[in-house]
Design brief:
The protein is mostly helical. The chain has helices at 2-17, 21-32, 37-44, 48-68. Helices cover 80% and strands 0% of the residues.
């Protein structure tokens, strides 16, 4: 359904607007480029565990921003 797709796209845009540049970059590297935590860590100079934590925080931030835009 086109309307449902439009709503999902709007929610995604709202979620991405809720991120700062570094969070958006991490999500792009992980899900847009498909890099491993180790590879991302080398790019941003973090250990894989720290990289994972920052990605998880970015996902939570995006989720909150997306849900708040449709309340």
């Amino acid at each position: 359904n086109v309307r449902e797709l439009d709503e999902r796209i709007a929610k995604l845009h709202a979620a991405m607007r809720g991120l700062d540049e570094s969070q958006a970059d991490l999500l792009h590297l992980r899900y847009g480029r498909g890099l491993t935590l180790e590879a991302i860590g080398r790019v941003v100079r973090l250990k894989p565990g720290a990289t994972h934590g920052r990605i998880e925080r970015a996902l939570r931030t995006a989720e909150q921003a997306g849900s708040e835009s449709h309340e």
